[in-house]
User: Which sequence fits this backbone?
């Protein structure tokens, strides 16, 4: 029986975001934050929003990191022209309930106009308004480091129960920090929501946690990366990273093993069984709890994923049971 654990470890080193690129993404994210704040303050001072959108802005804005960048499950894109994707929540802090505040699309416009008005780097290639976020696309250095920042927009009377400004579904409670807590509790990493919700008070503790997280690189983080990298290589539309993460972590689908190859194979089998037993649903483990993330998927798309998953399991079984293994190395993008 082949032991391909070391090959997976080497592969992980290729797909895992390294410190240099992490630093670049953080720098760009922070620059965008400054640009939004500057533009927002300037537009607010001249009552731009009140005049152009028939509403007065009383709120202040804050930012909260979220998603795979925090959980360290972000991966290097498999193709040179693909983009890094980071999420950074924009929070309007105020006191108005849903019936009193402007509609979600107006808050999207607040952010877009703030980016345009704010002064900063000229690398922005496109600003795109989406249902649940504003996407800011950048062209990287010499075309080899493309990325975009998704800015989900929230209104928060309490930062622990923010409303997402969804231009399609209107306001609904959504707390991305809960998802980080859910994932980090699976691996008992010691993460606390306060690290992000009250970042100024917990800066040292958060930095220490980040340092410990990088040193340990828990196996579940690697499993999620492998799943995302597999999705990158499959032709056709595959599942987003949040769904891959839920599938790996829900109901003990992940079970620790000393070898990554066996752990991944077992996780794939457990995911397949779990989907069959749950009527091919992927319930969100955090607010809005129980929401089926497959609800908008056509049967054809579900069948496509299930067939790809079955092939992946078959390949994993063959690789583990064989006496040797031929691999095609993946190069860094």
Assistant:
């Amino acid at each position: 029986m082949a032991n391909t654990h070391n090959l997976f470890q080497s592969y992980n080193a290729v797909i895992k975001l390294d410190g240099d690129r992490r630093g670049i993404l953080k720098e760009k994210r922070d620059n965008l934050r400054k640009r939004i704040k500057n533009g927002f303050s300037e537009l607010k001072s001249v009552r731009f929003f009140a005049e152009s959108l028939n509403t007065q802005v009383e709120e202040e804005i804050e930012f909260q990191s979220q998603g795979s960048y925090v959980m360290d499950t972000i991966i290097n894109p498999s193709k040179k022209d693909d983009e890094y994707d980071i999420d950074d929540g924009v929070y309007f802090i105020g006191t108005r309930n849903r019936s009193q505040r402007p509609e979600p699309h107006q808050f999207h416009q607040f952010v877009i106009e703030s980016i345009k008005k704010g002064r900063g780097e000229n690398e922005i290639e496109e600003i795109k308004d989406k249902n649940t976020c504003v996407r800011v696309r950048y062209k990287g250095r010499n075309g080899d480091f493309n990325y975009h920042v998704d800015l989900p927009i929230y209104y928060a009377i309490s930062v622990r129960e923010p409303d997402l400004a969804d231009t399609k579904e209107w306001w609904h409670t959504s707390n991305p920090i809960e998802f980080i807590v859910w994932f980090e509790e699976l691996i008992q990493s010691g993460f606390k929501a306060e690290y992000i919700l009250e970042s100024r008070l917990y800066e040292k503790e958060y930095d220490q946690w980040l340092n410990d997280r990088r040193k340990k690189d828990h196996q579940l983080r690697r499993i999620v990366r492998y799943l995302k990298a597999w999705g990158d290589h499959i032709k056709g539309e595959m599942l987003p990273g949040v769904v891959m993460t839920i599938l790996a972590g829900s109901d003990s689908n992940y079970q620790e093993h000393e070898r990554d190859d066996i752990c991944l194979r077992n996780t794939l089998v457990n995911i397949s069984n779990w989907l069959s037993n749950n009527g091919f649903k992927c319930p969100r483990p955090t607010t809005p709890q129980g929401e089926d993330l497959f609800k908008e998927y056509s049967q054809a798309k579900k069948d496509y994923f299930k067939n790809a998953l079955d092939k992946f399991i078959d390949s994993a079984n063959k690789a583990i049971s064989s006496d040797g293994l031929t691999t095609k190395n993946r190069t860094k993008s």
Q: What stands out?
A: The chain is about 45% helix and 15% strand. The mean pLDDT is 86. Residues 175 and 287 are 6 Å apart (CA to CA). The two ends are 32 Å apart (CA to CA).
